[in-house]
Structure formats: structure tokens, C-alpha cells
Amino acid sequence: MAKKRGNGEGSISRRKNGGWMAQYAVYTAEGRKRKTLYGKTRAVVAEKLTKAMADRDGGLIFDAGKLTVGEYLERWLADSVKGSVKEATYANYGHFARKHICPALGRLKLKNLTPAHVRSFYGEKSRSGLSAATVKKMHVVLHRALSQAVSEGLIPRNAAHGVRTPRVGDPGEEIKPLNPEECAAFLRAARGERLEALYVLALHCGLREGELLALRWEDADLDSLKRLV
């Protein structure tokens, strides 16, 4: 007869063959499922149950074989990224994951993702006209997510590790300045944003990111309307 435990703590019972079994609930990418553990003695089963539930409560998904890259990225964003980084960083990670990574790799099983898949993905993004810096940001998101999957025991290795991304300034990388219509659209989109002044300054002065972020009031000569960099 099963020994009753608290809700969510699982149960241990004797089997007809003399062995023991434990059952507990897990929440996988496909919803709530019941898992069963077996052992020759009650002590063995109890130890297995304690470890399994500790892993469950630590956030591990046990049906890793069915988990897709897209499902894992959504879970990683919600459980590990949100609340642990700045809101802007979380938004950027979500943007690159949902707009770029998931459409290309999201349907692949997490366990089946290979460096070849990742390398091909980076190549396609580069050929589509995206800058090396943008592809690098996608790599950061994917690499960090997969690193956590490795540490959780969901996959044996990080498929993004060691895959070379295009370097900023690589031969053939073309810089495409905005045309007047694109500049106007950019300014309209930036209107009302917290960093609107920074965007306007970047567009009109052509400063690089590091130069913009390093500017101080003393760098601006408001009388002659000049700025010193």
C-alpha cells in the first residue's frame, strides 16, 4: 500500500513482485506527467525519489529527449533570465531568441542540435545582410542558454561552443548607412523613448556607441553648438 505524503511529494509503494516503486509528478515541456522509479528495497527507492524531486524542484525538465530548442529557450528566458538581469537585457535576449534563433533552430530537438546547425545558422544570418555585431549577439544568447542546459544535464555539450562567428570588420562586411527615408522612420520610432536624445545625437553626429556613452556635459560647447569627442 502506498505511503501517503504531502501534495507534490510523491508516493512509495510495494510491488507484487516484492520490489518497491515511487511515483511523483513533473512538469515537462508538454505539461504535467507522472514519473515512476523502481528499486529492490524501500530505502533505495526513497533515495531515488528524494534526488529526483530535488532535481525537479531545481527546475530540471526530465523529458529532455522531446524538448525542442524553442521550448527550452522560452523556459530559459522565463526561469533563468527574467529577474536576474536588467529589463533591457532581458528584452534583447528575448528579441534575438524569438525573432532569429527560434524560427531557424526552434523545431530541432535540443539533444540533436549540432555545431553544424549553429554554424549554418550564423552563415545564413550573415548572408541575409545582418552585421557581424548582430550575429555575435545571437551567439551570446544561444551560447548562454545552451551552457545552462549542459549544467542542468539536459545535453552533454554546448553545440555553440567553438563555433566561430563573423568578426566585426571582416573583409566583405559592408556598412550600409541609412537613407533619408530610413532616418526619418528611425526618429519617428524613437520618439518618446527614454533614450530618444541619445538616438537623435547618434544619427546627427555619427558617433560610435562608445563615444556616445562616454559623452559628458563638459564635452558640449552650447555657445558654438559644437561637441568635443
TrEMBL record:
<dbReference type="GO" id="GO:0003677">
    <property type="term" value="F:DNA binding"/>
</dbReference>
<dbReference type="InterPro" id="IPR013762">
    <property type="entry name" value="Integrase-like_cat_sf"/>
</dbReference>
<keyword id="KW-0229">DNA integration</keyword>
<dbReference type="InterPro" id="IPR044068">
    <property type="entry name" value="CB"/>
</dbReference>
<keyword id="KW-0238">DNA-binding</keyword>
<feature type="domain" description="Core-binding (CB)">
    <location>
        <begin position="67"/>
        <end position="150"/>
    </location>
</feature>
<dbReference type="InterPro" id="IPR002104">
    <property type="entry name" value="Integrase_catalytic"/>
</dbReference>
<dbReference type="InterPro" id="IPR010998">
    <property type="entry name" value="Integrase_recombinase_N"/>
</dbReference>
<protein>
    <submittedName>
        <fullName>Integrase</fullName>
    </submittedName>
</protein>
<dbReference type="GO" id="GO:0006310">
    <property type="term" value="P:DNA recombination"/>
</dbReference>
<dbReference type="InterPro" id="IPR011010">
    <property type="entry name" value="DNA_brk_join_enz"/>
</dbReference>
<dbReference type="InterPro" id="IPR004107">
    <property type="entry name" value="Integrase_SAM-like_N"/>
</dbReference>
<feature type="domain" description="Tyr recombinase">
    <location>
        <begin position="173"/>
        <end position="229"/>
    </location>
</feature>
<dbReference type="GO" id="GO:0015074">
    <property type="term" value="P:DNA integration"/>
</dbReference>
<comment type="similarity">
    <text>Belongs to the 'phage' integrase family.</text>
</comment>
<dbReference type="Pfam" id="PF14659">
    <property type="entry name" value="Phage_int_SAM_3"/>
</dbReference>
<keyword id="KW-0233">DNA recombination</keyword>
<dbReference type="InterPro" id="IPR050808">
    <property type="entry name" value="Phage_Integrase"/>
</dbReference>
